[in-house]
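Quick one from the shared queue. A colleague (R.T.) flagged Aspartate aminotransferase family protein as missing a structural entry in our internal table.

Convert sequence to structure tokens.
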Amino acid sequence: MTTVNETPAVTRSAAELEELDRRVLLHPHQNGAQHERRTMVRGSGCLVWDARGVELLDVMGGGNWVAQVGHGRTELAEAAARQMGTLEYFTGFDIFANDQSLMLAERLVALAPDGLDRVFFTNGGSEGVETAIKFARLYHHHRGEPDRTWVISRHFAYHGTTYGSGTATGFPGMHQGIGLGLPHVAKVSPAHPYRAPDLAPGRDLTDFLLDELAGTIDQIGAGNIAAMIGEPVMGGAGILIPPADYWPRVRELLARHGILLIADEVVTGFGRTGAWFDSAVRGMRADIAVVAKGLTSGYAPLGAVLVRDEIGETVAGGDAYLFHGHTYSGHATACAVALANLDLVDREQLVGRSATVGEWFGAALAPLGDRPHVGEVRIAGATVGIELVADRGTREPLMAGAVARELRDVHRVVARDYGNTLVMAPPLVISQPQVTRAAEAVAEVISRLGAGGE
Ligand code: PLP
């Protein structure tokens, strides 16, 4: 693997940078009580370095489910430089496009599940989800069903943080103190087999979830519902893998009521959970798919919304005027980087490698299976969720924050805590020894919890 940036262009000391950080920077998802700061300055493969020269093993894809091809890839730096030297940007509004966005759109359509044939570019996931919701409503509006405004999402879904996407997000804390969110958003239960309710004999989790969804549809009235949105595998909720029949049955129920299905593939896409588009292998047959993150491996901010031809035609064809778009929709440099990134994912067969990474983690984490504070280990492609419990009998959640902190500060391994689940989503280029190192560190920290550590 070729990487760049052996000598970071850092001109200030670590202490100066940390002081600067406290003084001027507001971090996304910042915890005001947390005063520790760490300035990252360099990366190569799965390793990253902070301004103090400390090396960390990144098993969280740039800390945020990104970095499919690893850090510091010259191929992507060169693609960006080439494009910036040719045409860095030109608007995509009105009649204009740039060649890179057209070629990327063509590439995405070829990779996407059948039927998703039109592409709209955004700067990231939240904008993608906003766009998907708007398109779903617009589609019904243009077809003479303007009452179809409701969106069904799920508790503990993560769909972004802007007003529309944030309302679809199912973490209650996100909605506090900001006034009203998007009207007409309803939430149903996520497919979480480990926390399934007690069911009557002969009924399984999917039966229960489908009944709940059907009840919600009845209550709102099918003619008032535009779409349902869901992550094929829920990431921020802690790697929740649905039963195999969940999405096909949801799809069928929605189709019966003329409700569109939006697959939020921001995390799952581009090999993260083992397929180019995870929705394709889970039987979602989505009408709209939102991607971001792995599209560029994080080397440039970019997202995309793919829609069925008929939806594209309805919202932007004929005499419709699509009053929606961003200055940087289809940014030429971001699209050139995405094309080069997809080349690497393809050439290095990283989509297939994702499952192998998951198998390495599965084997290396097997000893955790009988630890008293491990409720469940869930693996989907190269994502791992370890749900911690105070007691295996009651399944009372045990928050994972202390584990993630100790991993980072003592073992120098970057994972993340999502409530009571420890999550890993490494670059897909991670080596087996690196997986072993991460898994051993995780096992050590969690085993000490078992010995009364927390
Ligand atoms: N959708 C999912 C499934 C996500 O995990 C995220 C971010 O983590 C988003 C949407 C929002 O994407 P962004 O942070 O790029 O706005």
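The chain has 14 helices and 16 strands.
The CA atoms of residues 198 and 382 lie 31 Å apart.
Added to the table.
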